[in-house]
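User: Second chain of the day. Same drill as before.
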Amino acid sequence: MIINYWLCCLLAFAAIQASPIASAQSTGASVGALSPAVAKVADAAVAGDAESQYTLAQMYNSGSGVPKDPAAAVLWLQKAANQGHANAQYSLGTSYLLGDGVPKSTASAIEWLNKSAQQGNSLAQANLGAIYLNGDGVAQNFRVALSWFEKAAAQGLPLAQYSLGKMHQNGYGVRTDETTAAQWYARAAAQDYAPARQALAELKRPVPPTSRTPTAVAVGPAVTLPAAPAAASPEQAAVLATVRDWAAVWGRKDVDAYLAYYADDFRPPNGERHSDWAAQRRTRIDASKRIAVDIVAPGVTVSGDSATVRFTQKYTSDRLAETSEKTLVLARRGDAWKIVQETVRKAASAGK
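Assistant: Same format as last time:
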C-alpha cells in the first residue's frame, strides 16, 4: 500500500502542457486527433463542468482514450474537487495518500478525504478510518477510526463492516466483543467480501482441546505458539494471549491488525518516528508472499499495568529465515494490552 512516487514539478507541468486535452484547457477547442466522445468530454471539462472534469481525470488515470498521465489526472481532479465534487475529492485524497501523480502528503490526503467524507462518500470515510486506525501520518486514534468506519458501514460498504468486525474482535477502542464482531463480519460476508468470510469462519471455529494444555498448538497459518501454562495467573494468560494473537495476525499478513497491537506511544527500537516505522513495517510485510512466526519458550512477568514477555522467535518467509531472542514490553490500555517497547537480539538468519 505504501508507494513512493516523487515527481519533478517541471516535468509534470511539461507533460500536462504537451497532452492534447490539457492543451485544450487554454484554447477551449477540441483536438482533431481525439475521438468525438473524448473531445466532447474535454470541451465540457474546459468549460468548467465538474462531472466532465472528473471523467477526464479518470480517463487520464486509466489511459482510456488518452495517453495514461497521472499528473494530468491530478490536474483535472483538482479542478473538479475545488468545485465540491465528492468523488473527485476522494480520488484526489487517495492520490496524495499514495503519491500518485503528486508528491505524497498525508496532510493533503486527509484534507481532501475529509471533504469527501463529509459529503457522505463511504470510501473516503473508510480510508480515513484506516489512516487513524494505523496512525499513518497522524496520531493513532481508535475512536476516530471507529466513527468513520461506522459511517461507511452504515452505507453498506463491506470493507468498513469488516474493519468494524476486526476492531470489536480485538478490542481496538471498544470492549472486546466477538458477538458484535461476528455480526459485522456476517454483514460483509453477505456481500461476498472474502476477508470477512474467512474471519467469520475463524471466529466460529472451535478452540482445539489441546489449546487448553501446555502442549504446542497452531494459531493461524504457519504460526505455532505454546499455550499458557496451567499455573499462569489470569493476567499472565491475558498477556500471552495478546502475544499469541499478535503473532497470528503477523503470520496472516493482516497488517492493519498487526500494527494495532502497538500502542500510540510505542518507541521503535532505532529511534525513528512511529509513523515512519509503521510505514516500513507495512511495506516489508506486504512484500512477503508468505510469513511464518514461531514463538518458543515464552516467559511472562506482570507488574501492575506493565508486562514483559521474553521468548525465542523463529521467523521465516519467502525472503528471510531468522531466529532471534525477543523481548516485548506491554502496557495496559483500557481493557487491552498494547506493545510499548520491542527489543531483538538476532541469533541466526538466512536471506534470499
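The chain has 15 helices and seven strands.

User: Great, on to the next one.
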